[in-house]
Structures are given as C-alpha cells and as structure tokens.
Fold each of these.
Amino acid sequence: MSAQTHDLIVIGAGPAGMSAALTGAAHGLKTLLLDEQLRPGGQIYRNVTDAPASVAALLGPDYRYGETLTAQLDRSGVELRFGAMVWDVARDLTVTAQKDGQSFQVRAPQLIAATGAMERASPIPGWTLPGVLNAGAAQIALKSASTVPAGRTVLAGAGPLLLLVACQLLEAGVPLAGIVETSPRANLWRSLRHLPAALGAMPYLAKGLRMLWRLRRAGVPMFSAATRLRAEGNDRVQALTFTAGGREHSLAADVVLLHHGVVPNTQLSRLLRVDHDWDPVQLAWRPLVDAWGETSLPGFRIAGDGAAIAGALAAEPTGVLAALGAARALGRLTEEDCESRAISGRRTLNHQLRIRPFLDALYSPPEWISDPTDETIVCRCEEVTAGRIREMAKLGCKGPNQTKFFSRCGMGPCQGRMCGLTVTQILSKELGKPPREIGAYHIRAPLKPVPLGSIAAMASTNTETNKIKESLHE
Amino acid sequence: MFKAMTLPESEQRPVVEIFVEGRRVLAHEGETLAAAMLNSDVVPFRYTPVSGKPRAPLCLMGVCFDCLVEVDGAQNVQSCMVRVEAGMQVKIPRGARRAGDVK
C-alpha cells in the first residue's frame, strides 16, 4: 500500500467529476482531480474553456453551460492534474497514473470514478472501413478541433445524440446526405406510456422536437426503422446500404456516422471487481451503487454516467452526492448535515431522471445490433467475427473469457471496450441464458498500454524502492 | 475526410508543420494529431496486424484504439489523445509492431 496522499481522489473531469471534486474541496477534503484530457469538461463539455467563440455559439447554450463548472475549479483548492491517464487502481484504492511519460501513485481513502460513458458499438458489416465513425466522434472533432466531416455525410442509428450531431453539423455547413434511423417502430408505442412522466421534463422534449423540425426544414432525407445496414467500400467507405419501408436503399457517402446510444464505461469498476448487474432497459452493464454512489468496495464510489446513463445534468448532482458520502465517511460531516446538504441534489437528480424511461424506450437499440450477422466483425482489434463467437459457443464456450481465450476476441489494444457488450449478448442468445449469467471480460491493469519506461520512472521516485536502494548502499 | 471550419480571423490558430511518412502536413496549434491527420485526409491511419486492412479512427475519445500511429519513434500512440507539436514525425503502422522498440 502506498502512503495516503489525499482525502479524496476523483478520476474524470466531466460534469460528475468536477462537481464531486468541488463539493469535496468545499467540505475541507484534500482533493485531487485527475483527467486524461488536457483540459476539464469531459466529452460533453470537451474543450469548453478553449473553444473558439463561433464554435461554442454553434454548439449552443447547453455546451457553454459547462463553463460554469470549469470556472469554479480554478479557485476551488482542488489539486488538478490534467493529461494524467489512470492505468491501475488497486483494491486498497492506490491509483497509478501516467503523466508526461512518467507513472506516479496517489492514494486516498475515498475514490470517486467519474469516467462517464462511451458510445455503444454499432457492429454492422463494413464498420471497420475508414470513414465510418461514431457520431460522437464527429461532435468531439467539432468541439476540440473546429473540424467537420468533408463531403457527403450520412448519420445512422438511434438516440438523441444522433439528432443533436446532425443539427450541429448542419449549422456548421456540412451537407447531410441522409439520416437513417434504426429504432424499431414498436419503440414509439412502448415509449408512449412513459410520456406523462416525461412531460415533467418539457425542455428536453421541446429540444427534441426543435431538432426534428430543424432537420425536416433543411430537407435532409430521413429514413426510419431501417434494418440490414451495411457500410460499403474497399479502402474507405463509399456508401451506406440498408432496408427501409420494404425497399433497399443505397446512400453514397464519404463519411458515415453511427450511433446507438451511450453505455457506462465500466473498465475501472470491472478492474476493481465490484458488483455489476445487467440493465435490461439500457442493455448494458451497470455497477451497483448506493444513494451516495458507493460500490460494493467500501470507499470506492461512482458518479455520473459511469454508474447509469442519465446525462450531463443528472451527472452533476450524483457527483455532489458521492462527495457528500465521502465527506461523511471521513467524519467531516455528521449524518444529519450530510442528509440536509443532499436534499437539493436529490431533487435535481429526480427531476433529471423523469425523461429517462421515455428516452430509453423510444431509443432502445434495435435487436440486430446485439445479434450481428455471422460475417460482421465484432472484435475490431483481433478481427473476430460474430460467426466465430457463435462457433465457439457451439464448441462449449460458456462466457466471454473463454471465447477470448480461444479466439483472442477482446484481447487487442482496446481490451474489450468495443466488443465486450456484443460478445456477452451474442453468447446470451446462443446459449439461451440471461447476460448476467454469461458475464463480462475480466479487466486487468494496465487499463491502457503503458511503456515500460513510464513504469521504471515511477520506481525511481518511489520511496520504498529508494529505502531499499539506500540500505544496499550502506 | 474532415475539414477545418472557416473561422473568423480573430479565432484562427497558428499553423504548425508536422510530417506524416515524410510528407509535410499543416495542422492547427492545440488540435489533436488525429484531427490534423483527418483534416489533411491522411487515410488510412494504419494497416492492421491481423489482416493488413486499412483503418482510421472510430471514436476520437481514446476508446477504440483504431487511430494508433507511430509518433517520433514511439509505436502504438493513440493519435486522438496527443496534441500536434511542430516537427512531429508520424509513421503509419503496417502490420504488427516491431520487436526492439526502445522508445
């Protein structure tokens, strides 16, 4: 165990992480905030402190709002380390990270992971072709580099982000060759029963309707309930083909942007072996947390979309609640104080959650996303197809760790981030067992590849190692 | 594959010069290497170790590892996670990484 360096460490400087760190520091905790990016904001407020005014204006007030959080960081007393990539967390909560090519260790009795979400994989034939990106990637390019897709651009998939990215690209002058929505028609009916609750979140609904209206007014060709999507091309994408309205379509495209919602990024919680459960509505794993974000490992908390997808405005109060829980656990708050300070956060959170059942039902991913055709590559790194996974299930593989062992599926540099959910779902269907019985990949450190030199640099600054060296010299 | 938006003059960033496979590529200060390569249509970013097929970024947020390139001799660098620096020498990986990488 390395020595305690802080009271609270927060990993990830998106809305959940920033509000957790701010709350921790406000309650007198010696707080460290780490983020892999060079600036605060996470993906949702990516580059908000540095984006050109014209780009920030195009992205709109929901993006610029991120500045209200980033502005507080500077005078908060929170120790900030950006460009710090966490590659290991031990069960005693020692955090090992790398910055400027050197690894270092820090430890606090309370750790909050605010590592957010990533886009659900959209495995369709041809999705490995250059020019096929996630829709979120196009938004990140816009936010971080003021750059947009060149040429004919097609968006395909389902979810509020798909429409938002489409609108933002239109504003930026990108010619949209089509929007191919994949939500099954039944989703609409299933979502209607959640509409009354969603009416309590009018701004969201209004924003959604405005986006749809904007796209229609712009005359973007729109297709709905599309199936059999396929990206075509040899060395780069040339077209997206699909079936919609009983007909086959082919849209010539230079860039295809895929999106099927976002899912919690569980690398860190899986590494720490805390309890997870399968969310049958959001079709993803979620780490189990209590009202204060605490997982089954005492002191390890998760805030924001990393615990369950609820969006940026819900992430903020979960960050506050996790930090209050940490302050309480450290004896800096009485139970009574903790409860009373949680009231407004809870209220905001409950308000933000009202829209979720409606959105989750409306944009539930089509079944074929988790049941790709045999030829489709599932593991992009090791180029393992869905057919190969099914073959291994027939040979007796019971879970993703066995298929990984036999096929290298999930063993490449992305360490199963891209294929994990799909493999679990394919095996679930193939073996007739629910996902929670199929399980997920075992995640091990390093969470991302680290050069040996970076680890060696840590040894030269480690006091334990120095003590041994000194004793050898004596 | 991507293009930089036309920004008002007051918002334009200084241009820096990098080299991809020896070819001069102009980038904007502060942007990621992946953004610079996409803007200059440097596609693909790499050829895979398994089948040798061409790849380019999928996620641009450090998750997919499809933007791996060689930067100043260091292999398997996520180009979406590093910023351009003047004079950067970038190589496109072709197949599996080589043994003996000491950087």
Amino acid sequence: MKHFIFIIIFNLGFCIAHSQDKSCRCNYYNVSEATLEDKLTGITIAHENLKLPQGEIYSLWSHGDIFLNNGEIITNRLMRYDGLSDQLVVSSVNENVQLVIEKNTIKGFDINLLNSDMILHYKKIKIRDIYSTEYHDAYLHVLVSGKTSLYAYRRIQHVGSTFDLETYYSYVIIKDDGSIYHFANFSRRYIAGLFPEKKEIFKPQLRKQRNRVRDEEHLIKAIELYNSL
Amino acid sequence: MILKIKIKNLNRLKTLVLISFFCFAFSVLDIFRSSASSMNSDNPVDCFYSGVQKIFLHLNKDVYVTGEEVLFKGYLVNAANIPDTICKVVYVEIENSGNQKITGFAIDLFNGVCNSYFTLPDTLATGYYYVRAFTNQMRNFNHDYYFSAKILVANQADDKLEKLISDNYHNIDSAKVLFYTQNDNLLEGIENNILFKITDFSEDWDRQPVEIITDSGKIIASIVPNNKGIGDFSFVPEKDKNYFAFWNKKKFSLPPKIKDGFIIQTQQIEENRINVIIKSGTHELSDLLIFKAYNNSKCIFEKEFTMSNGAASFSLPAEKTKQGFSIFALFNSAQELICKKVYFVPDNSELIKINCNKAEFQPREKVILEINLKNKELINQRLNLSVNISQKGYSGTKNNLNSINTYLSLFSILGKKNSGLLESDSISEEQINKVLPVLNFPIPFSKSICQFLPENKGFIISGKVLNKSNIRVQGVFVFLSVADSFASLKYCISDSAGKFFFRLNRFYDNKNLIFQAKGSNNEPLKIEIEDKFNGELPQHIGFEYIPLELKNYLKYSQNIALTNKIYKPGLLSLLSENQLDLSFYNCHFYGIPDVTIYLSDYDELEDFKEIVRNILPGVYYNRSEKRVRVIDQGTQTLWPNEALVLLNNIPFPDPAFVAKLGSKQIKKIDLKKNHVIYGDIDLYGILSITTNQKNVYALNAALANLTFPNVFRNIPVILSGIDYGEQNNLSKKVPDLRQTLYWNPELKLSKDGKAVIEFYTSDLKGNYSVEIEGITSTGIPVFANTSIEVK
C-alpha cells in the first residue's frame, strides 16, 4: 500500500516538476507585465459586515480590468463595485487590504462576472441625481453604447432609517448631442418623449414590436431600436 | 469477512494501480511532447521565422549638406514581410563611419509605419554617415536585422571640398580584397564558388586582375573585377595545397580550408524546375539527410535523401519559391542544421505604373504624375505608399536591388558582412544566387530569456541602480516624474539584477524624465539608464572612397544649400495633426487635492515655515528636521509619518530649498490630507508646491537623481513645393533651388487604385528621379520608379 502511495506521489511530483519546467521555458522575458503596469491610487477601508442584497452583482468579488485616466489599463484585478458608496473596491496585492479606488484617477472598469462569460462595462460619467442640481461622477453600467447610449446606475440604499439594504436602479440616457436624461421610472410614452425629433417613427415602431418599455430588457431594446432608425 | 476485506483491498489496489499508470503515462507523454516541441524550437530556421522583425526606411536622398532635413518613412514588417502592427516604437540613429553615434531618437509607429524628418547637425564633418533603424525587439538578435543606409554628407562650411576632390584621400595601397564563400570556408575536394570585392575600389584604377595562386606559385584563376571592384570565380581546393590571392602586388589570404561540410548549389534548369545539388567533402556518407525549403515562414518543400559519391541532386518545383527569398536548409538525422543557403527570386513584377504628362520640363513648370495600381487585386488591400521626387545629380540611382522589395526580402537577412556587397548595384542577380546565398542569419531566442522587451504597448525605458562600488542593488524604489501641470508619478522596485523598467505613453514624449532612487538605508546610490543606441555595432567595411562624380555633386549641393540658407525655401508642412491627446491627463496621480491655496491671495510671507503656520492649517512643518506632516481629516490627529512633498510635481525636493521658499516664489500649494495608497506605497498626505519659475529641479541630493531627455520625433511632414500657378512678384524674384521637389509619405490611392500628383519644378536643371515605395497589408512590397528631366 505504501509503495503505491509513494508511486502516485512520485509520479504527481514528476508531472508538477515537469510542468513547472515548461512554464520556465515559456518565460521569454525577464520582466512581467505587472512590473510595467501603472499603479492604482486609493484609500483603504476596513471589512464591513453589511448585509448586501444576495445574488446581486455588487456583492461578488470578480476579476476585471481598470481603465486609468491616462489611457493605461490595469488588468485582471480582484474587484467589486460597491453600490452603497458608488465606489470601485479593489482587493490589493496584499489580500487583506481593500482599496477604494480614487475616482478621479480612473475612467471606467470591466468586471468579468464569476462563472459567466459576461463582462460588465462600467464608465465614469458626470451626472446629476434625479432630485438634485449638483453634478457628480458616477460609475454607470453600460447597457447600450452607440449614437444614443443607455446606462444603468445600480445603487444600494438603506431602507428608510434601518440598516437593511435594498437595490435602487436608475437609468441614464446620453444622446449624441450630449443631453443627459436621468430617470428611475419609465414607460413607452416617457421614452418616446425623450426623442421628439423621431417621435413619429419611434413610437409606432415600439408599438409594432409590442414593446411597452416596462422593464430594463425592453428599455435596452427600445434604445437599440432608436439607434437603428 | 477476511475475503471481503481482501476484495476491498484488491479494488483499492486496482484503483491505485490505475491512477499510478495514468500518472506515469501522462508524465511520459509529456516528456515526449515537450522534447518534440523543444526540438522544433531548436530548429534555427523555424526560430528565424518566429520573432524576427525587419525595417526599411525610405529616405528622400542619399547626398545631403549639413543643416538639411532628411525626410524618411519607415516600414516595419515581421519575418514573413507582413506589416508589424503590434510594435509601437522605432529608434533611428545617425552614426559616422567610425561607428560613433551622432544623434538618436525614437518615433511612434502606427500600424507598422512611421514618418518624420530630422535635421543634420551643422557640425558634422564631410563624409559618409549611416542611418540605422531598429526596434527594441530587434536588439535581442544580432544587428544584422537593423536597417542601415549609407548617406553622404558635406559640411556646409567645409571649404576643403576642393581639396577632397583633388587630394590623395583614396589610396590604392589601402584597398583590400574581401572574399565571400558559402559557409565562410573553402571545402576540400569539391567545386567552391567564391565572390570577391575590392574595398574602396576606384573606377579610375587600372583593372588589375585578382590572381589565385597555390603555394607552389601556380595560378589557378585570374579574374578581372568589374567597374565596382567585384568578381567571382570557382575552383576545387585540393587537400595538400594552400591558396592565396594576389592583387596590386599584395598577398591576401582566402577563407580557411575545411574537410567536412556541405554545399548547396542551385540551377534553374527549366522555367518551372530548380535543380538542387548538394555536395559534400566527405564521400563515405551514408546517413539520412533532410532538405527543407522555407518561404515566408512556411516549409514549402521537404525531402529525405542519402548522398552517393559525395553528391545528391533533386528538383524543386519553381513555383514554390515565390518572389523574395527562400531559405534552403540541410539537416542531419539528428535534426541539426548543417548547411543553409538563400535562394533569391527578384521581384520584377510592376505593381504600380507612373505616367507623367511630359518627359522634359522647363524650370517652374507644372508636373502632373498619374499613379495607377496595375494589379487590381491589391485595390482592396490597405496600401502604405511614400512618394519622393528628388534630383539625381550622379549616375548612382535607386533600382530594384536597393528598393524596399529587395531590402525586405534579402538585404536584411544577409547580415552586414554580406550586405556590404549589395550596397550598390554592383552585383548581379546571378551572382547573388551563385555565391552570396550563404547567409549568416542569426538564431533568435538563443538565450533562454530575452533581454529586450517588445514595445507593443509603448516605449519602455529601463536602467539599473548601482551603489558606490558599482554593484547592482535590488529592492530600491525608483521614482519617475516629469515637471508638468499634473503630477504623474510612477515607481518601480529594482529587481534582483538591480534593474527597473517603466512603460511610458506619449505624455512623456520630449520631456525631461526625472529618476530618483530611494533605498531602505542611507547608502549612496546612482542610476544608469540603458542607452538603446549603445549596441555593439559591427564595423563598417571600407567603402569610404568618394568617386569623383559624387564629389562634384557634393560641391554642387553645398552651393545650393548655401543659397537655400539665405532664401529659406522651407516648404515642409505638417502632414497630419498627429498631436498628443492630453485630454486624459486632467488629474494628478493622487486624485483631486483637498485644499488648493494660491499664494497671491494672501499677504506676503517670508518663508515656508511662515506659509505653513499662517495659511496651511492641518500641516505641521518642523523647521529643524525640515519634515512636513499632515493632520488626518477623519481623526484630526497628526499622521506619524512624513507627508510626500512635491515641487513642481516632482517628489523629494531638497528640504533646504523648500524651507527658503516664500510667497514670492510659490504660485500655489495643493494639499491632500487623506492617507492615500498608491500601488504599494502609503502616502500620509501630499503637499504639492508649484513655483512661479518653471524648470526648478531642486532635488534632494541625498537620493540618487538623474534627468533623462526622452527625445521623440513624431513630426510627419509633406513637401509639396511652391505653387507657381498663383505666383506673385516676390516668388518670381526668389531663387528656387529645391533638390527635393515633392515628398509625400502617405500617398492615398482612390477606390479605383489611382492617384494624381501635381507639383512645380524648381530652377535646378537636371534629372529627377520619381520613386514610389510601400507595402500592402498582406506584405507585398511595392516599388516603382521613373525619371523626369528639367531643361
């Protein structure tokens, strides 16, 4: 029995050693890509035991790429979008540290969703909150990118004065002339009203497609339809 | 019960045996697989195709006067001649014939092409100079792949040109005879083809023959060189004899004689068949040999054979060896390369036709050139073309042999030693295929680790940190910054070899880069930046002789340059607005400061201590220690560690210098109070001081500091000349002595493959050559030329 275990360990060891040897072979250059990458700027946060809404994307740590303001890309970092503070949190090289990335230094990020091929694109855009007059930088999830772009602002907020959290989604449409519309509730009439220049074509087309623009999926279809007109 | 246990154990044993077997089988298979792959990667011909790049520069002229602009366009391709769109930076340097660097700069590549210009310094002495071009990746191989073009430069103020024309500069006694053979040796017992070139050969000399003589004095061959000093012959070296060459009463040695070896000879017997003859000095050879022919990174032909009576021959379908070069390689049964040869098929196909409205023109007359793409299949491809129309005042002119198509296919792989032969049109294509195809192509990736990184994401600058004893130091923080309106700090920790690397984007172009090294102890350090131009370049071979015709043209060009200097017909215009987009550089590396103070808003304060005390609440400055600390915004307590001080966005300024700064010197102060983490560095507050006077590099002398000018020349220009159609009186009076009439590095063809170029001739009479060089997106080099005459 001991002999067999020894053989298995020996063989496995051999395989591992050999595979390591091969990886050395492939290492042509004496500098890793990470050495050449730019550095991230942020502040540290303590681990918070918040009851994040389960099953939502922002409760998960995923790998992704960060696009810096200077055009550089920092790839494959463990990250999480914090919907409560609208911040990007990156697990530092030292895994015990969570770093809140300085918003002014980046222009967006991509999150590769765990156990999925889906990549979520986030872009930093200056918007005004629905009932506010002040503009601020927000990380918006890109739903439609084109002549007219559609973004989702996926936030978490406290329920009343309690510590419970709930999701709060709002949407942003940026038209090619630069006008920005930020809304939480929408309907076919509301969306068609945002595009008065093509209202006469757009609204009948929506009707034809039986798109009542009641949810996010239909909103995406509506904007894609508008872009195709 | 016992039986059950036994059966159970037996099953377990079976499982273990099975697992063990699989593991063993896997490991054995893995060994075979890896040994097979390593065998492949050890094949130098395959390696040749794996990572090689070649670059060609299209220059507007080859004779210049100091102070003149050298216009150029660069084409970078991989080993299969496909434009290399991955590499982002190319380096160009000018060196004199003594291999001393005159100037060097970097240019950004866009989709494998770059175009710009540089001005020849006024201080250059008259003589030959070399324009070299290379990429960082090319530095991993030997310098044979570097582009090298020889230009002749006359100093504008050189009044000794007359003397140069008449003096005894060119001496027959200093000339040498160089021999070129296949495999660099003479092979005993079989016929060897030998090519020779007399260095510094003058057409004025008597054509003395080169004589090949045995040690017993018997003349084997006597060959008269051609007007360029080149000739070829063949003979069978015998075992017991030694051979020498005699020319101009001087003795020259031939390449050394060897017993064992192979020679590959080619003979085009029919239009569609090439006869390959392999000869060996060893007659008793029964081993299996493998012949492989490669063309554009693919093995196009393979044949296994054995030698009989020291020779073997077989035919190769000619259509497989397409235009350009093919590598013929001979391997032994152990897959070792034993002989190699280039087979060259010149590309004589005319892809582009140039039609001119007239053949002869008056000075200041309009010229209309119509360019037609003859091969309509190329219309759908992206074509990169450059057009040059320059005066040719001497007989040497660009032809098929020194154009882009020959360069990319042949020159760049033959190595400097052999390509010296091809610098002029002195060698015939027959001679190339007869003897020259002995190539010494370098074997890429001969080292397990490549030293120089491919710059596929931008310019990489590297260096090393040394201590006082010049020993490399690891684990040192090296900071890189520039004095700019936004702080853009980068850092790297020196590796085990003391090296550090930074990848820079275009923000850093043409800026003084400031490097600062900070070790953990107070050991004095120094920084050395790697000079990419400081390679061990091969010596240039002779060819310093300036023919009389060229000397006269040089004098002529010198007079023209003098007139042009007075009237300044500077007609270069920026081709495209290839301006650096700095819109993304709108933020400091640390984000937005918490507090910004403009000193002009306050009463005058004498020194930094006064400023801190009066207008910077939350900052503590210790005058004796010259340390700055900041109060944390959250806890309102002083951070225990020193804050990072930036002076004009450069870190670690001289504390004594900062201490003296008062309101008069400081423009503004930015303060970041938070504890910021930048990469792996903790910054306990940041105090950024911007002074009124720029370029103040008061750096902390306790650290290793180095300023490095990052010279980039991204200035694509077009030269379209003067429009005499709308001439005014002023332009009539000003002499127009342009030698380059038209230069367009980005010629665009219409959808039907046509383009029309219009320009005016200058006052200079003579022949002008019209050259179009370029490459298609699939790697087909394009060359077309014609000439016009101004009478």
